[in-house]
Amino acid sequence: MSVHKEVKKITTHVLQEMKMKNEKIAMLTGYDYSMARILDKAGIDIILVGDSASNVMAGHETTLPITLNEMIYHASSVVRAVDRALVVVDLPFGSYQGNSKEALSSAIRIMKESGGHSVKLEGGKEILESIDRILSAGIPVMGHLGLTPQSIYKFGTYTVRAKEEDEANRLIEDARLLEEAGCFALILEKIPAKLAAKVAKELTIPVIGIGAGNGVDGQVLVSHDMLGINNEFNPRFLRKYHNLYEEMMGSFGAYINDVRSGDFPNEKEQY
Ligand code: KIV
Questions:
Q1: How many whole angstroms from 99 Cα to the centroid of ligand 1?
Q2: Are residues 223 and 252 in the same domain?
Q3: Which one of 1, 99, 104, 188 is most buried, by most CB atoms within 10 A?
């Protein structure tokens, strides 16, 4: 039987075993109790409380404004919903870049106040000291390389990363460093599929892609994007499993008409 069917709870060890047995890991974002409950019941392996909540939930243009307190609020709502999935929580911009002490205290706040199971940080060599310190406190860390949205103002665009040899070599070096440091998994975002497959083959930890092709150990998407809630975001890597934007417009429109026409509530819908 496959590993994910046997286990009651997904842990970092289970994910490692899945990699060893060539079983793909399914990961999606979740920011609130109701969505996380459905994700967990559907059998998702990892729920990422991503700082994409800054865009998706709060309507900011970038992931930079979301605060540590807001991330803890989202993460604690998700943790209350989950029986099986591993919950990974993003350390938000500004909560770990200062120094390793600040990074550790932010990670501890997330673990203590939200009950999340692990944290994710964007970057490689430049944040290694912080990753070491967080890991030595017993907190599992997921890495994130390639397109790192917290650095959007450094790069200027959300285009595919590491297309040139120099940047690709730096990414491979960073991936090795993150594995050596002890990260339990790595996200690769929006990089060429060939490069992502090469990294996944070389690393012994699970490599999970978003816009990084099929040669990796698992996939992650933003739930709201794959459900088609946002009809203005259509990157090539996104597969939409639903058109919730249209469905919700239809339902809200029907409700508004029913209220206005006096059709709702009817006799059976009252006391
Ligand atoms: O915040 C997020 O949703 C993420 C994923 C895009 C990997 O980091």
A1: 23
A2: no
A3: 188
